[in-house]
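Human: Here is a favour to ask of a fellow structure person. Comparing notes only helps if you start from a blank page. I am asking you to supply a protein in sequence and structure-token form. Write it directly below this note and I will take it from there.

Assistant:
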Amino acid sequence: MLFAYNANKCSCLEVEQHENQQDRQSIYHEICEEEKLVTMPVLEQDELESMQYLIRDSAREDYAVTVTWWQPVKGELGTTRSMWGVVKWIDQTGRRIKLANDEDWWWIPIDAIVSVQS
């Protein structure tokens, strides 16, 4: 609990109420974030093959793709992230790809990829 300076004419009770309101807002924000979490999508074989083709083609022909992948957050629940760029490396052993654009690069686990678009 914070103690208010007398010149502000704010009592300790008001400060405590303000802190409780911040706690409630924090809890509400956390609940809203948890509601956005999803399970990892299950992909069909033809979708996997299409994504693999686009990944290899991006690496070979040096053109940009948008990759969307699932990232775990809480147990079996997670969120999806997207990034555009060119596949610069396919790490077969580590089962990941290196996606790079003008601003950044990212290693993305192959098994977490849920979409690839050219």
